[in-house]
Design brief:
The chain is built from eleven helices and 14 strands. The chain starts with a strand and ends in a 5-residue tail after the last helix. The relative contact order is 0.13. The structure holds phosphoenolpyruvate (PEP) and manganese (II) ion. The site of manganese (II) ion has 5 residues, from loops.
Amino acid sequence: MILILRREASATEIDAILARLSALGATGHVARGAEQVVIAVEGDKELLATSQLDALPGVERVVPTAKPYKIASRDYRAAKTTIPIGTRVIGDKKVVVIAGPCSVESRAQCFTIAAEVAKAGATVFRGGAFKPRTSPYSFQGLGREGLEILAEVRERTGLAIITEVMDTRDVDLVARTADILQIGARNIQNFSLLNEVGKLRKPVFLKRGMMTTVTELLMSAEYVLSNGNENVILCERGIRTFETALRNTLDLSAVPLLQSLTHLPVMVDPSHGVGDWRYVIPMARAAVAAGADGLMIEVHHSPETAFSDGAQSILPRRFAEGMIEIRKVARAVGRAI
Ligand code: PEP
Ligand code: MN
């Protein structure tokens, strides 16, 4: 269950609530959000249900939930969470499109791609400065210099910036530049990292791991939320299945499923989902039709020389054409871009 506290609940009242929970053999985790303080409670459900916790001083409301994730669940919040990013809002009627290269390679590369994707209607620029590569010998990203380039892209184009943070030691550094911090598929169960970004108030973009279930993804979101950061965006980016014809299997059924299980915005990355540029736009269209709140698409002006993920990167021209198609699908399902 979740205890929603009164705004004016004092530290003494919170301590008394925690002591009462402990006497009931339950544990309480205090999550201090910007708007609200809540206590996520784990314990004997029947005992808790009959313990009149709503009568305790400081408690405004008790929300019963049978889910292992609590603050992430629709039980906690029926209305969708909306997250303002620059001039847009993620989680409302408009589909937000994030686009850019897999890796930040150079100023010229980023400026070229950013100008093109902005013109076509993207509102957030992506680019990895810290890259999680399978091989230690592959390009690892420009690091600090990459972040500087991203900041310049924002200044020049007005696009918001999303970039990945891989290491707890870099969280503050990345948060200084990024408007949204990306936690990659490989780090989705790096609980130290999730705790660290949970202490921020900047939006966190959680990419489903290639081997994480929907419940596990929501539990990862719960780590961030339970640290008080309510600005979490989920992203389906393909999972590993027996099918090997494409890089991953893009699980679009996770989109309506997540939309019903959680109030958090749900986005889709068709680029990593398929791994082949030819199928990116068709799956982007399908993602919007399935109810995604936004898309993340890898775009490169020279995919054949890209430092990473060239095979799945689409040309700016194809991105612009794709945006026209995606806009039509959005309109057909009562959305816009
Ligand atoms: C990326 O966005 O470039 C990336 C590495 O994604 P993922 O973590 O989904 O593989
Ligand atoms: Mn990539």
